Amino acid sequence: MQISPILAALRYHKAGVVLIAMQIALTLAIVCNAMFIIHQRLVRMDKPSGVEESGLLVVKNEWAGKPATGQIASLMAADLDTLRKMPGVANVYATNTYPLSNGGFANGIGHSPDKRNYVSVTAVYFSDENTLSTLGLKLVEGRNFNADEINGLGDNDKIAPAVIIVTRELARRLYPDGSALGKTAYISNEPSIIIGIVDRLQIPWVDNSMARWADCSTLLPFRNLVTITHYLIRTQPEEIEDVATRVRATLYATQRLRVIRPKDGVKTFAQVRAAAYKSDRGMAILMGVISVILVATTAAGIVGLASFWVGQRRKQIGVRRALGATRQDILGYFLTENLLICMAGVVLGGLLAIGLNLWLMKQFEMERIAPGYVLAGVAMLLLLGQCAVFAPAWRASHVPPVEATRSV
Amino acid sequence: MLGYYLDLALRSLKRSPGLTTLMILIVGFGVAASMTSYSVFRAVSGDPIPWKSSRLFVPQIDMWGPKGRRDGTNNNEPPDAMDYTDAVAMMREHRAKYQSAMYRVSPSIVPPDASKHPINVGGHAVYSEFFPMLDVPFKFGNAWGADSDAQRAAVIVISDKLNQKLFGGANSIGKTVNIDGKDYRVTGVLDNWSPKPVFYDVVNTGGFTTGQEDVFLPFTRAIDVGMPNDGNTNCAEIPKGSGFVGLQQSSCIWISYMAELDDKAAASAYKDYLDGYFRDQKAAGRFDWPVNNRLRDLPAWLDSEHVVPSDTKISLMVALGLLVACLVNTAGLLLAKFLRRSSEIGVRRALGAPRMAIYMQFLIEAGMVGLTGGVLGLMLTWVGVRCVSWVLPKEIASLAHVDLALLMLTLAVAVLATMLAGLYPTFRASRVQPALQLKTN
Question: Mind telling me which residue stretches traverse the membrane in this protein (chain A) (predicted)?
Fold first, then answer.
């Protein structure tokens, strides 16, 4: 296939060529970045929380009438007892927050009591001896809390745990050169001994700004005696729906002065996960829809313009056919022509894609796009161009030679 | 003449129904995607109090100093909330026209009817000036007076929704609401007031929240009864004392603050006051770093707090990119369509039609495509806005809505954009040489 006659012919409809190339460039730039955003979101949504999620239930309870700290302790103990006795319930504990809840508090943890001098930020989970088995966390080193190590903690009381359990990632940051087990760390202004290390436990927040310490969690042996408590309930997976429907009424039956919201007071962990990642999922869907519309539009545009060019050049095609060009020659001509235009488009588009990514990085703290996305986009658009132009080109190849003799 | 051109355009569009449909679809989808994104962007980026936002200010005092910066993420920004000491000192000195310290509370209300479960409500502990400062509308009654602030009185302003729930919507002024076991006298019922973003306390609400603002009660009273803070508490160091009193004595930040300053002079005087306050505290030995305070007006404050989610901005940008790509596409198709009719143009020109007439004819044709695409875009936008609740968090999706302004904008964007896309093809059409066209036929 000779390129020069094609280039010469292209000079006669510059505007159309430029428009198609621009279209391809814009499509490449947007689709690459959209795919990259989708991939990032999917990776984020795929992050394991470290929790055995199926069969886990969350109840948010709020005591009404402002009971005193001591009262809350006995109310909570009674609740835990009631819940544990419910059929279908395997284990339960009370806490301030849980992974993916998007609430809770974080603290600096390090080697000195000075809080402005910490090694890492860590999420603080109040726990008891049932936490590991309720959440299904994997203890890789050390031991669990003992029941006698769990203390009550009133509102804004000083937090100074004697013992803590940390995640493997946090242990590595605190003691990069050896096991952190049995060593001390300062999460308050008094030292705490690390008695156990769990494999993985995600922090409550999924926000990108906290991604750097997303696996740095600490379990503290406290029962938080404040008005709002979350009960985490491990059920037999097949009985979770049943327990979920009964739990609210069961708790109200023991004590009326509380609030468990009918709408969202009781949630399965699957619902918690869906809510936590809703905006990521939404963004992925949105980018997907926009990419599909864009690719379809571009393909339709190529079909439209190529059809027009074929219609415009029927006479010339007839002449070429009459002079001995085969159908394959004509087909090849249009396919090559499209390939040349698309190649110009993808070169420009590749630059645009990187430019757009740089701009997104600057404005929205996005990551740098992997070159694979641009290359895949280039391959996809070249293929798309060829597919789109095939029908008009095939029609062109079927223009009979006799066309050359008409109306000349 | 216009009628004639419309007729010509209609005939031309009918002649190639495939191409026409394609263009209409492209314009429709492009416009709908960008308008749907825009409706979300518009909902979250709007000024919640446009008549007053430039007169509302949020002061920031650098009570943590350079060592208290978190992870280096917010550069050299002072903390975005206040500790109790500074908030109360600034309320006492009372240098702005109106001002209020506030913190988020989430008490529970025990209904008088013992058969009903208690309900949990959200709200803020504020000073009386909060209401006139933010032009809060009342359905019944009014805000409590400054004397109630001073007396730490058990008074309350409730939302009309809570009034509906507790008192069946009747005028409840003077009645009482039982909060955490104590009776609060209702002084006012709000008239459907729920600004989005929740601009007076973006630190604790993130701006957009599904949480209701049901109760407002005196800050002084809430502190007195030890009503816990339901918002964020950030500490640079561990409080020395324990309990709620320990929190009040600490440098932990958990209080939002807003002030009304009616002109530039007042704003700069207030900034001087803030810096002076800082220097006094420094002289007293509280700080050992240089002055680094901020006084932002509301729009600048919302911007610095990144209230508009970056996902919304990215979506809008990408959707606008899609619109541009669609227009480039339409331009290509119009070019093909117009140039195919070179001979017709040649005849019209030879019979004396000026270039202007050709311009008119083809721009009207482009406009017609735009209008039809716009009508399709209108329907798709309506569907799109309905569907955003599937993909966006509830607190944001519920704000996006279709109104007349959005519909008019959709149509205008479709028509104008398509005509813009038609400009070059029209220009090319008007340059067709009549002699050449007549000869080849």
Answer: 15-38, 283-310, 330-360, 372-394
